[in-house]
Amino acid sequence: MPETELQLTIGVDGDIVTARQEGRRLAGTLSFSPSDLTVIAAAISEVARNILTYAGSGHVDIGLIERGGRRGVTIVARDEGPGIADVQLALQDGFSTSGGLGLGLPGARRLMDDFEISSEIGQGTVVTMRKWTR
Amino acid sequence: MLVPILKEGDYLIASIPSPLNDTELLQLRDALVERVDRAEAQGVLVDVSRVDVMDSFAVRTLSSLATMTTLRGAETVVVGIQPEVASAMAQLGLSLQGIETALDIPDGAAWLDERARRSIHAGD
Asked: What's the ipTM?
């Protein structure tokens, strides 16, 4: 279980900015470089925007974790939206059903160390991602 | 938040003071496109040095701004992308294709000046 947790509601576009700023602030308590903090903020921005675009609303939970002496940040983005029909397709660069660039999910996956999606049609989507300090 | 748009010489300058949400970014884009016409501007400089993250939405919006102003006869130059922001953009797979970038406002203005000089010579 993460030791510190932020629970953020995503419902309007201003919440995306708040989520990435809060996430950066929390991650900033660990020994991440400024570049890593920007990477974490960018990944939060992408998954939070996906919630808004595809589900309308949802939550982003951000916590600090420790495993094998390494510390890190964990981000869980969850919604009860329509779900993703083909997760592998949604992770391909350039694939979008919203007219976007199709770089949100694949980009967030590249930015973070760990990245998992579980999605069920009609039930919603959960994206879990982690970044570890070096 | 409304981003002030200044006119200096032939150019419009918008310095984004802090991170914008999607709606505010779209408002800025539309205001700049409209001002290009009214102010008869030859170029647009957008300073993003205080923007914390350039994500896929920001890049898409700036790309459309550049396309729109070009169609109205004014080039857009994005200036001040911070090193760590650039690094995250590259990892995201984002590029500002078709958009001019410069280090800061004087650099961007110099690029626009140079471009204006060349187009005058080309018209000789």
From this structure: 0.87
Chunked into runs of 10 residues, chain A (134 residues) has average pLDDT values of 82 96 96 95 95 95 94 96 89 82 86 95 96 94
Residue B57 in contact with residue B89, Cβ under 8 Å? no
**CA dihedral defined by B64, B65, B71, B73, rounded to 10 degrees?**
-160
User: What span, in angstroms and rounded, lies between the C-alpha atoms of A25 and A66?
Assistant: 18
pTM: 0.91
To test the contact with chain A by mutation, choose from B21, B50, B51, B55 the residue with the greatest count of A C-beta atoms within 10 A, namely: B55
With an 8 Å Cβ cutoff, are B53 and A103 in contact? no
